[in-house]
Design goal:
This protein is mainly alpha-helical. The protein has 4 helices and no strands. The chain has helices spanning about 5-30, 40-55, 60-65, 75-80. Helix 2 runs antiparallel to helix 3.
C-alpha cells in the first residue's frame, strides 16, 4: 500500500481527531477556572504529546504511549493491595 493511498483513506479521520482535540482544549481554556489549569500536569502532558506528534520522527505511536504511561513499579502488588 502506498503512503498516498493511506493518506487518501485516513486524512479526513485524522483531521477530525485533531479538530476534536483542539475543541476540547478550547473548552478547558474557556472554563471559569482556566487559569488554574495552566500548570495542571495533564495539560502539560497533552501539550508535550502534540510536540511528539509534530517532531516528525518515526515511532510516534510507541513514543506517545510511553509518554502517557507510568514507569514500572516493582512493588505494584503492594501498592494495589494484591498478594500472590
Amino acid at each position: 500500500m502506498t503512503a498516498k493511498s493511506i493518506l487518501d483513506r485516513e486524512f479526513l479521520e485524522m483531521r477530525r481527531r485533531l479538530i476534536d482535540l483542539a475543541a476540547s482544549v478550547d473548552r478547558v481554556e474557556r472554563g471559569n477556572d482556566a487559569g488554574a489549569m495552566t500548570n495542571d500536569p495533564r495539560m502539560r502532558l497533552l501539550r508535550d504529546a502534540v510536540r511528539v506528534l509534530a517532531e516528525g520522527k518515526q515511532d510516534r505511536a510507541a513514543r506517545m504511549q510511553m509518554h502517557f504511561s507510568d514507569g514500572y513499579v516493582a512493588e505494584w502488588r503492594d501498592k494495589f493491595g494484591m498478594t500472590t
